[in-house]
């Protein structure tokens, strides 16, 4: 079957837009093909700075013929309805229609045959529509073309369209269409400087090979591989080590069509600046990689750049140009850093009194005081020194007002640590200035220093409780204040550090520190714990745990000790993987189902202790005895927080439960015996609730 080659050749597409644009092109074209009955075999899209390309393999040469039936009016219907039916279906008379019998009467049916079109004609129809409606995040409309004003909105001026369609063994045809005066053809262009001449292409394999010969690597991943491998080899050869940066690699590969890796240098005096500032300066301003000394592990005064040309002088001019740009940037960074060092962190804090955190939550200065107070309360609970936690909370936000953080926001917190150490602060206080933001995502490191943990919890809880109290909760996919991330951070801080804390007590303390109007909040919203439960489910699910087990534990109520919840879930999960666990769950579910049916039928519950005098069968007595023993044993184990032992106790219920359902008829003819047996089933349900609500567990 034929293949499609499509290329949209333009001025430079921003690197950040290329990957999504390639995916959008693939999706839009293939969706349209499928909608037109042209089911393809495979598709792949590519992007370079100056082109989007797509190849679609195995497209049928022609659409299938379609036969559809269209129901018309009843026999004897008004002439207007009949004429409308004939016009809509293309029939010349009712003699061409069939008659279909129906319980509601006899109806005219038109059999409409729609012959399929050649795929190339379908492509000529859908491709210009896709180009005109392409979803660029930002686009532009440029001047006149061929004397006519331009009408196409595109990310950058579009210069050429390549569109061919045909079999591998034959000369492909051009898909004939035009967009804004640009006619589709089979001409593209190579590298802007090294091979700018026109290139005639036929199909994808031919197109990719000719582009490579014209100094264009079409595949973004291939460009990344070249840059990474060459940079590693270049640095290794000189005894250095490349500081890897996947995000920068993705961006740089979108800036070049023919990557050429080179190394430059800067004055060693700039190494006095913190490494992260050097890296941010070189990365942000020149899109270059920094380099470490492979022996010491420290940054060197070298950097790696990626050019888009094989220069005649071996790249000396390009390297010198990058060095000329980087040198003043580093000089600025050095000036900012040295200027910041002249002012103590606490001397910057008064400025926060003029900066509003949120109109309903006060200034940044007020927020810092709240975090200080909350960190002091949390500190003893996590084994932190109260004075150090308070001091760290006092200074933690101060670096937001420094020159370096103003220039490079990504180093906030980190610079706070450097400045705190420089002014002689305790190491734990300095570390907390950096770490109180952590963890910022599922892959981020969790602080372990107790002072950092106290301040990080205080910071996140103040944010969560504050926005919860003023009803600014996340809705759907919208979470402008990153509250889901904050909640996940609290969960990881607690569980990964093995902390025993009451969420609600900490949240209540955070609420008490807020100076809110009575109309804004009087008490902690009850659904905040549910929000944490949802976040915990996400966290445990990513770790392979079952979300229904989280529901089973939370259903017991009063559970805001996250560490204990996680341990219960772990123990419950292991128990349910065993044969005893699976069979006991089935027995409990059976008991719950019977109780649910009978409670609904009798419109009552079967609470209360069963009457031992009414036990007529040994299985009843054995089950009652086992329930008493297991309840005591499991409750004692739970009280000791030995959840594995509690599960082992629960396992002892399995034999008597199995025997009960095998030998005992619950709905006995004697009403008193029936009621007593239903109470016994309720005892099973009550006994197992010592560890979890088994009704929430999925089979």
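Q: What amino acid sequence fits the structure above?
A:
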């Amino acid at each position: 079957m034929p293949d499609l080659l499509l290329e949209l050749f333009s001025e430079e597409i921003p690197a950040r837009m290329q990957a999504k644009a390639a995916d959008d092109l693939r999706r839009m074209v293939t969706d349209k093909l499928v909608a037109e009955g042209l089911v393809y075999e495979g598709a792949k899209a590519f992007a370079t700075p100056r082109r989007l390309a797509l190849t679609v393999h195995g497209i049928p040469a022609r659409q299938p013929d379609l036969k559809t039936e269209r129901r018309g009016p009843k026999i004897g219907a008004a002439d207007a309805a009949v004429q409308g039916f004939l016009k809509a279906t293309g029939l010349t008379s009712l003699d061409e229609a069939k008659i279909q019998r129906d319980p509601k009467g006899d109806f005219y049916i038109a059999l409409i045959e729609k012959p399929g079109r050649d795929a190339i004609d379908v492509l000529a129809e859908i491709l210009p529509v896709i180009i005109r409606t392409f979803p660029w995040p930002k686009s532009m409309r440029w001047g006149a073309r061929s004397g006519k004003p331009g009408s196409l909105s595109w990310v950058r001026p579009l210069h050429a369209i390549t569109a061919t369609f045909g079999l591998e063994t034959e000369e492909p045809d051009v898909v004939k269409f035009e967009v804004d005066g640009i006619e589709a053809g089979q001409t593209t262009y190579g590298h802007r400087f090294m091979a700018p001449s026109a290139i005639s292409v036929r199909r994808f394999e031919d197109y990719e090979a000719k582009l490579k010969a014209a100094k264009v690597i079409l595949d973004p991943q291939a460009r990344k591989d070249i840059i990474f491998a060459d940079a590693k080899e270049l640095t290794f050869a000189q005894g250095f080590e490349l500081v890897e940066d996947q995000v920068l690699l993705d961006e740089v590969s979108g800036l070049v069509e023919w990557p050429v890796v080179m190394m430059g240098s800067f004055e060693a005096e700039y190494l006095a600046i913190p490494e992260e500032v050097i890296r941010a300066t070189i990365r942000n301003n020149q899109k270059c990689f920094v380099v470490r000394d492979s022996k010491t592990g420290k940054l060197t005064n070298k950097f790696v750049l990626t050019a888009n040309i094989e220069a005649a002088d071996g790249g000396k001019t390009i390297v010198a140009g990058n060095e000329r740009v980087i040198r003043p940037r580093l000089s600025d960074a050095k000036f900012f850093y040295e200027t910041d060092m002249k002012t103590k962190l606490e001397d910057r804090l008064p400025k926060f009194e003029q900066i509003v955190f949120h109109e309903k939550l006060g200034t940044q200065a007020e927020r810092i005081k709240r975090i200080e107070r909350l960190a002091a309360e949390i500190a003893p609970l996590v084994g932190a020194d109260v004075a150090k936690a308070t001091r760290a909370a006092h200074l933690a936000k101060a670096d937001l007002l420094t020159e370096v953080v103003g220039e490079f926001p990504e180093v906030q917190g980190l610079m706070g640590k450097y400045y705190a150490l420089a002014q002689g602060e305790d190491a734990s206080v300095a570390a907390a200035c950096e770490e109180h933001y952590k963890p910022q995502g599922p892959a981020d490191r969790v602080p372990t220093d107790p002072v950092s943990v106290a301040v990080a919890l205080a910071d996140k809880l103040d944010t969560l409780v504050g926005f919860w109290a003023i009803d600014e909760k996340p809705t759907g996919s919208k979470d402008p204040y990153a509250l889901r991330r904050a909640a996940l951070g609290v969960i990881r801080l607690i569980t990964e550090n093995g902390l025993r804390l009451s969420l609600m007590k900490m949240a209540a303390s955070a609420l008490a520190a807020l100076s809110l109007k009575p109309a804004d909040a009087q008490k902690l919203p009850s659904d905040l714990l549910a929000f944490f439960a949802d976040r915990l489910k996400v966290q445990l699910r990513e770790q392979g745990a079952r979300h229904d087990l989280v529901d089973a534990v939370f259903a017991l109520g009063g559970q805001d000790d996250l560490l204990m919840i996680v341990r219960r879930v772990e123990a419950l999960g292991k128990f349910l993987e065993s044969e005893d666990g699976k069979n006991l769950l089935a027995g409990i579910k059976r008991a719950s189902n019977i109780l649910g049916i009978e409670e609904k039928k009798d419109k009552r519950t079967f609470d209360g202790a069963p009457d031992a005098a009414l036990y007529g069968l040994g299985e009843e007595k054995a089950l009652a005895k086992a329930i008493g023993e297991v309840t005591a044993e499991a409750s004692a184990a739970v009280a000791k927080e030995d959840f594995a032992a509690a599960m082992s106790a629960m396992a002892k219920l399995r034999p008597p439960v199995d025997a009960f359902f095998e030998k005992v008829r619950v709905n006995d003819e004697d009403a008193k015996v029936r009621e007593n047996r239903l109470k016994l089933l309720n005892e099973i349900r009550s006994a197992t609730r010592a560890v979890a609500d088994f009704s929430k567990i999925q089979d």
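Q: And what stands out in the fold?
A: The first strand starts at residue 3 and ends at 10.
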